[in-house]
Every structure is written in structure tokens, then in C-alpha cells.
Amino acid sequence: MYEQSISTLAQQLRNKDISSVELTNLFLKRITDLDPALNSFITVSSDIALAQAAQADALLQSGQGSSLTGIPIAHKDLFCTQGTLTTCGSKMLNNFIPPYESTVTSRIQQAGAVMLGKTNMDEFAMGSSNENSYYGAVKNPWNLETVPGGSSGGSAAAIAAGLAVAATGTDTGGSIRQPASFCGITGLKPTYGRVSRFGMIAYASSLDQAGPMAKSAEDCAHLMQAMSGFDEKDSTSSETPNDDYLSNINTPLTGLKIGLPKEYFGDGLDSNVADIIMAAVKEFEKLGATVKEVSLPNLQLSIPSYYVIAPSEASSNLSRFDGVRFGHRCDNPKDLLDMYMRSRSEGFGTEVQKRIMVGTYALSEGYYDAYYLKAQKIRRLIKQDFVNALNEVDVIMGPVAPTTAFGLGSKTSDPVAMYLEDIYTLSVNLAGIPAMSVPAGFANNMPVGLQIMGNYFAEAKLLNIAHQYQQHTDWHLQTPTMAKGA
Ligand code: GLN
Known about the structure:
486 residues, alpha/beta, Amidase signature (AS) enzymes, 15 helices
């Protein structure tokens, strides 16, 4: 039951083969049994889940509801959920109960989904391994000695282990795609502005974007159907009309033009990962696609440019956490300055503090032009690279990450090695285009994701391409052994 797709479960709920309360209890039991080994949830909201499930059952009873009605899903603990603890993986917010609901979670709730709880994540979404959470590292269900990827590692691990049917994630520089790749699930980072950021705790506002994580592309389409679209509460939300993400999913791929960027297959890419990606591309050729080489010449500049822009925006966004307006406040402050300093030192972890310092420095008078402005100019070049390549081809394919999931603790003392994990994902956020991670095989006994990048607002096309691939392969249906134990 825990391995079923949203479409199948929706049908079973409608046929009364199972009720939403029964399904929700099944997932809550799996969380109790398996999550102690994974640590993928920060909060399990059993009472809310069972109440929502009972409501969903009543709705289904009267023949109403959507395909998400009664489906148990989880939310990254970065989305404000009214009345439910929202920590963003930080001690700073370990007592924050939002008085309002984010647009994403509210739309998913309106579609009738059941909220199982809030998933673990790197603190303030800063990380590539989920080791930066105040609530402890998350483990990868495929090998408990390895990381699940980050920052949406809790969502990815929970889905891979069958602790939730699907989940929300956010992606500022790869945080949906890289954990999806490491845990063998499917994830979509939509075009910037496609999904509302209202009620998402901000990391880097010009890059942050919420998206669906699930076992299959079809399940991601179900979630996108509910979560995407214009929101007047987010000034950067796009007014481009929503696509129907489900109805185009069966279009054949004959004539699809795929571009392979030569820079994605150079030094640093694990050759076992490269082999899987090339095998996946061959599969697309069998489905009628043609393949040509393209170039994204400024790829190497994406890491320095991202790691100036993201910390700069973070330093400004995180200034609100001062122990007064929001967040942890230290005990017995001597004076105002002592309160600010100690509250922030105690509330933020080391990676967050490091990024606030880098960002503050890059934005300071005298350095702004040298760092921030320069990084913005590079961002423009990176965007132009994608625009040029996507004039030649329909989509771009490549790896999501240079390696498979690495050992817990193996990169924590080497920030450059950690930041290099993001080499294939960051540029997509800098350009603002949509991209997916799709399970494509196993290397080093761990899952490997194929990255599919498309033009602005091409989410429906990406979901169609991924779905066609998943009709002919079963990598997305593989289950880790630990998930079978309960
Ligand atoms: N690993 C990147 C970072 O630490 C991306 C994180 C994200 O997408 N939220 O900034």
C-alpha cells in the first residue's frame, strides 16, 4: 500500500477499498517504526492528520474531492503551517508556531491532502547533505551511513522509505533535485515565480522556489496541479496561466531534441554516474528523441556567483531573526547589544553564521561592486547560456550531482567539496528555469538522478518527458530494503 502512486490511491479511496483514516494510520505507523533510524521528520502531526483524513473521507463519501483528497503527504519544515511548529531546521525557530499558512500548504490542504507532519532539512535550507539541521542529520534509506542530500533531505528520505506518499520541497540551488537524486525519487524545481513563495521562510528570495517531490513524475504533476499558479500575496509570482500538468503527460516523445552540455560531463563527474546518464539518454533515443551536444560555457562560474548572491540575500533575509521580532532570545541579556549578539549566536548554527558573515561582507560599502554586482553580471551570462542552448534544443539533460550519496560526515569539514556538489544544479536557479531529477539507475549501489532542464514555464513538458521515461523504466519503483521492514 505504501508504494502506490497518487492515482492508484485516489482510485482506491474513491472505490472505498480503503479509507483515508486507514491510509493515514498506516503511514503514521510506518513513521513510528522506521523514522527513528532516518530522522526525516521534525514534527509528526498525527492529530491534524487524522482529523483531515476524517474530513477527506466525508468528502469522498459524498462523491467530491480532488485526486489529492485523503492522500497523506509531508511538508518541508520551511513552509509556515498555521498552528503547527515550523522550525526551518533551526534552533532560532524551535518555538515558532506560525499564525498563518503558506500558499503552497494552504492550496494542498484545500485540495484535500492530509498533512502527516513537517520534514527535517538543513538549517534555513543551507546545505547539500542535511547535516546542518539543529534537529540532527537525516539518513539515506538506501544506506543509513550516507547522507540523503539537502536541503530537502527529510522530504526525500521520507518518500523513499514510504513514510509519505509525496512531499513538498524547496530549491534555491538544488535542494529538491539533489536529494531526489540521492534518494531515488522524482523532484521538480519549477520556473521561478511559478509557485508562490508566500509563507515560505526566505533563504535567497531571487532563487527560492517550491516544488513537488514524489515517487513518479505523474505524482509530481498531481501536486503541481494544486500548488502552482499566480498568488497576489507574492509580488514575484507569475501571472502566466497554469498548464494542465496531467493532461499532456502521455504525449509521445517523437522528434524531441535533447541537448547534452559538454561542460556537464567533464572533470569531477563520477564515471559510474556518467554511465547511468548516458544509458538514460539512449533510452530517450529509443523513444524517438534526437541528441546533440550543446554548450553552457559559464558553468564553472555558477558556484562563485551563487555563493555570493545567495549569502547576500540570506544576510538580509535573516536579519529579522533577532530575538525580538522573531526567534530564540538569550537568557538574562546585559543590554540590547548583548541580547542581539547572544540571541543570534545561540540561535544560528555555524553554516548559517558563516553565510550571514559572507553576505554582509559582500554587500558592504566598498565591496558591493567587487562581489555582489560582479556576481549579478555573471548570473546574466549564465542565463544567456541557457537561452542560447534552449534555442537549439527542447530540453537539456545531464547529471544532477557529480556523485552518488556520500558518507555522513565525509564532507562536513571541507566546504569547497560540499559546495562542488551543487555544480550542476545552481545555474538552473540563477537562470530561473525549471528542472527535474528523475531516477535513472544505480551507481555505487546508490540511486542516480537524471537532470532534465527546460525553458521557462515548460513544467508540463518536463513532466511529460519524465513520465514517458518512467513508462519504459522502473527505477522510480525501486524500494530500499529498510522500507520493507515495516
Ligand atoms: N546547497 C545549496 C546551498 O547550500 C542549495 C540549497 C538549496 O537549494 N536550498 O545553498
